[in-house]
Amino acid sequence: MGLIDSVDMPQPVKFILNWGRKYSLWVMNFGLACCAIEFIAASTSKHDFIRYGVIPFAHGPRQADLLVVAGTVTDKMAPALKRVYDQIPDPKYVISFGSCSNCGGPYWDSYSVTKGVDQIIPTDVYVPGCPPRPEALLHGIIRLQDKIGKEDLREKWSGRVTQPAVAE
Amino acid sequence: MAGSPSRLSPSDIAERLTAQFGEDITAFEDVHGHAVVAVTPGRYQELATFCRNEPDLDFDYFDFLCGIDYRPKDAGYQVVTHLYSTRHNHHVRIKLDCDAEKPVAPTLSGVWPGANWHEREAFELFGIRFDGHPHMVKLLLPEQFEGHPLRKDFPLMTREAKPWPGAAEGEEIEE
Known about the structure:
The structure holds 2 protein chains of 2 kinds. In chain A, helix 2 runs antiparallel to helix 6 and helix 3 (34-43) crosses helix 6 (134-149). Helix content of chain A is 37%, strand content 14%. Chain A is an alpha/beta fold. Chain A has a 6-stranded parallel beta sheet. Chain B is globular and about 60 Å long. In chain B, the strands form 2 sheets. In chain B, strands 1-2-5-4-3 form a 5-stranded mixed beta sheet, with helices on one face. In chain B, 22% of the residues lie in helices and 25% in strands. Chains A and B meet through loops of A and loops of B.
């Protein structure tokens, strides 16, 4: 990547870079079920996640920083999800929104549902609920921003998978 | 359009079908105001065509078709076809018993084009083959999927690891 992953940046530079990144999260909504409606509710005027710098106007995965998987991922949908994830440029983040995408949820013994989106793509934040309320997504976003704020860019861009945070 | 709308009662429908098909109508039931008839495989297609063409029956709307796995309690599978007449506002369900080892049923896709996808779904979920179907391949499942998931003997891997926690209220199995 150049300078950032070859040199350890001084702390103020790191802080500024992460501060800029964490309040400009262009988000891609991978909405698959009822959770997508809660995501949309979180984007509208009452909950309004744009005030946290989460911008729901990414034209496609290639313009996005954050992928929110909201809904039931099936084994048939999984390759499409992987493809969308692969198209997002680094550094990229994933929020798994709702029980289905966390672990399969009520479809825990289904023949067709993927038991957790983290089997397909690395996930940063898990938001539990069925579906979670919009506030839970806001909480998940804040947890993700905390995580981005503390991030070492050199570490992140090395391609190593970092530990997920769970929204409480 | 021939004749005015006149709703037939379930017993009237059964009477009409029995008059035409005699012993090939093997059973009749009145379930929730709908006629439910069982038919032999040999005259299944003929019965469907009759239901569609006969002016006083006039089942012009193919509502749904599904499979049922009755094993191991009863023998084999069943194909259930639900028909509706938009003019007369009456329903009929046609039941067809299939073999447990090699379930095969005649296709209705030539009678109602809408049966095509329903039969493909019953094929992928229950493994019931529809004779004469123009395109007998999977409809919704991934292409590489193996097995027929709504068959009772289909193993659910998650349940192998963690058994079903128990029947919830209302789904107790009667023995």
